[in-house]
Amino acid sequence: NSYQLSSLPLQILFYVNGIYYIFYFLATLAMIVYKSDVFSYPDDFLAPDLALLFIMAVLEVLRLHLGSKGNLTEEEAPLGLSLVITVGSVILAVYFLVWQTYVLKADVILNALLLFTYGLESVLKVVAIAAFVS
Q1: Does some domain include residue 1?
Q2: Cα(73)–Cα(91) distance, integer angstroms
Q3: Which residue has the higher pLDDT, 6 or 3?
Q4: CA distance 71 to 69
Q5: Which stretches are transmembrane (predicted)?
């Protein structure tokens, strides 16, 4: 098969999402520090919020690595695994959007944009997987 099945838009989105996530992580970390300083942030909620942010960062690195590798090598398994990990990332983004101790307008904007890119990426992953399998 001499056809190239890997998705250029998906690969570009992985790159953009990687850059955006670095910004997202630093901004969210800075806001947690800000909120713990300005508001009466309960001590028993600060550690879990920070832990979830770091877990999300690890998931993100794994998700983007597997997705990019799967797309470039035209293998559905790593791409599918990346899609499964995206579910966990979506749940964590929703946590930071809705359930964290204090939600600022900046949190809403950052997480809405992240969820939008996850949605777009997921659609492109499904299309790519379908192309690889057929």
Answers
A1: no
A2: 28
A3: 6
A4: 5
A5: 12-34, 46-66, 78-102, 108-133
Average pLDDT of the chain?
A: 95
pLDDT per residue as tens digits for the range 92-114:
999 999 999 899 999 999 999 99
In whole angstroms, give the CA distance from residue 129 to residue 134. 9
Structural domain count of the chain: 1
Name the helix (H) or strand (E) containing 71. Answer: helix 43-72
Q: Is residue 3 one of the residues assigned to a domain?
A: no
Residue 2 lies in a domain: no
Q: Which pLDDT belongs to residue 43?
A: 77
Query: Position of tokens 């599918």?
Result: 80
Residue 90 forms part of a structural domain: yes
CA distance linking residue 57 with residue 7, whole number of Å: 24
Q: What is the mean pLDDT of residues 78-104?
A: 96
**Parent domain of 30:** 8-133
- Cβ atoms of residues 14 and 63 within 8 Å: no
pLDDT recorded at residue 48: 93
